[in-house]
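Entry 14. Two folds queued back to back today. First construct below, sequence then structure tokens.
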Amino acid sequence: MKTEYKIIQSPYTIELSLEVEKMLNAGWTLVGGLSAQDGFFYQAIVRKAFTGAVKLVDAGPNKLAIVKLVKDFTGFDLKEAKDLVDGAPAIIEGRTVGNLTRPFTEEEEREFRSQLLEAGANIE
């Protein structure tokens, strides 16, 4: 999992609050803050973690294509892929090799999402 941190600074609390609110709405998490009242300096630390997981809400009208995509991207056999799609909503976290699951890279996750959407799946 890749984690990114940003430090947001402002001499004004309202400005800092608005900026932190934007970051929270974009999926970031507030992990810390600091205030230096004498110098009127305020700071917040936010974090965003990339998990690589894709939530399949439903397969949409082209279920067979979605099963094939899930099979290709996860390394599941046909029955496992079909069961996962039939059991949606489901979180798909990565590629399975043997008993191990390797999380998707950012590129794999983007490609998987793109192809699922093209095939008509409903994802989050």
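Second construct, same run, same settings:
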Amino acid sequence: MPWRASFQNPLTKVAVFLRIVKEVIFMTVEQKAQIKSLRCQGVGYGTISKMLGISSNTVSSFCRRNKPGNTNNKSICKQCGKPLEIKSKRKPRKFCSDACRLTWWNNHLEYVDRKAMYSFVCAECGKPFTAYGNVHRKYCSRECYIKGRYRKGKPR
């Protein structure tokens, strides 16, 4: 395979690298704008590179450096609608405060993923109850806990 032998040459590798660097440095403003708009539309690197006549590696490195899909730097609070500032290299915030976060989650309990729900029988009154997150729970309420804890050996 002749292409394989030519690519084995270190000078060929350098030439390919320089061509890619040259494409990135000399990419026109129009090409950059086209890449941004096409990526926002969901077009892939390979398709963009064929449309613009540049390497797909150039397109992917441009997108990695410039994040064309993330153009808006603002978000709004899910509860009150206040604008939130998104800080770079941080997870985007969904709520403006703890009060808004707690209010929203209390109003939208259907979205809570309750994996740690356990069923028990109360050691004091004998009623079945469910508890979230505590495997070692014995009593269904504080009243039953106090009765069971402080009855001092008296039978039920």
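Quick look at the second one. Residues 117-150 form one domain. The two ends are 90 Å apart (CA to CA).
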